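Predict the 3D structure for this chain.
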Amino acid sequence: GYAIDRAIGTTYTLDLAALLAAPLAFTFFNYQDEGGEPTQDPVALLEALRRHAAKMTLFCQAGAISVPKPQLTLLAYLEDSIVQVEAPRGGIFHPKMWLLRFTAEGRPVRYRFLCLSRNLTFERAWDTCLSLEGELTDRKLGFGRNRPLGELVAMLPRLATGARNQALLRELRTISDEVRRTRFEAPQPFKEVFFHPLGLGKGMEWPFPKGARALAISPFLTPWAVEKLGREQALEVLVSRPESLEAVPVEALPEEETWVLSSGAQLDAQEISEEPAEESSVAAVDSMELSGLHAKVFLIERVRQGHLFVGSANATTAAFHQNVELLVELVGGRWRCGIDALLGDEDDAKQDSLRSLLQRYERPHQDDEEATDEVQERLERRVEELARSIAATRLSARVEEIESGGPYGLELRGTLPEWNGQISVSAWPATLSAEQRHALESRQGPSITRYESVSFEALTAFWAFEIEARESDCSAELRFVVPVPLVNAPPDRMERLLRSF
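Done. Predicted structure below.
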């Protein structure tokens, strides 16, 4: 009897088509039978999709939205659902979280909280997702353990690069208050749950307790974090990527238990599909390879308890000094929630376990010719910094009706930041192909570029940018999308889009 009322999400990188899947899931939640078949005709489903998209807001790192395929007109429904943000301490906005508010007539509000290590993309790396359910209580004071999560929700609009939406501010204040008074149930076999947002205050934050033994799973590493885990949490088990482990001094790594994913963990999803590819409605997705490590897990054993931390933070300096991150701590008895329980029995060949996906890390011989190219790294860093700077600029797109019903003029307005002669920047409406991009000039404004004849379906608030940097024989390229306010759009635009579909 419950229906989705509001959805708040956060991510670092964003694929717009992946975000479109979220309101689509909400729609089918309300309009499908027990067998999963839609109970409404396609036009009604499309209108329901539009309504659900309006109930969703996603906060993502400025400059980290990937360029979609052209002519994806459905993206118009997402134009008011995305808020670009920046980390207050110069790092990146990195948490991956969803808060879903459900309501039913005559019944208490319920929340579903998801904490992930995966960004909102279609990448198929190994990740984690924690799901918590909770019912809103009528207590006047909130639960102390929920307070940090409520503070993170309340802080989100303050990190926005654009103008603050007053209606959204009011909604987030309500959700922040309700989350503090929601009784979230810890999943078995854990007994308690705590929330640890990072990067919203001042100084370094280290949420881990002193430990007698610790495990860390992190695709990215820095020597400082690994050494601190060894010194303060007694790090004994480390799982990472080979290239990340190579950057850490060998003396900082656990002597016996340093692991990487085994080749057997690179699964082809099509091999495990129960249906033939030609009969499966999800064959295109299921044929993608499951590969690579992206999960972030920290497990600290104390005398009688295991403290499991899952979420977005890597074992890096930036995660605990600069970035905005989110970790959730689950606490339970060491016997069922400790390192051995997580890894599984190495000697039991019949039992599939996390350990069965791993192989011991062997450090390769260093080759001077394989040393990282400093020029390439500098170019990539410069391109990323310029992308964030452009994404944080106050831009707008102005529509001008050339003839009744179209075509239209579409002009990007604002003042761009400065870049040097080694860098070239171009832009185009994301509904058009990259071949139609226009070259831009440094510090150009207030009119940045104009498209003279754009069809009604191609009108969009999403603008794609491409940055190229060259130095010596090295080059770096980055494409990203910036959502901007669409000014003077046809007042009946959404209804006309619905008719065109």
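The CA atoms of residues 47 and 495 lie 10 Å apart.
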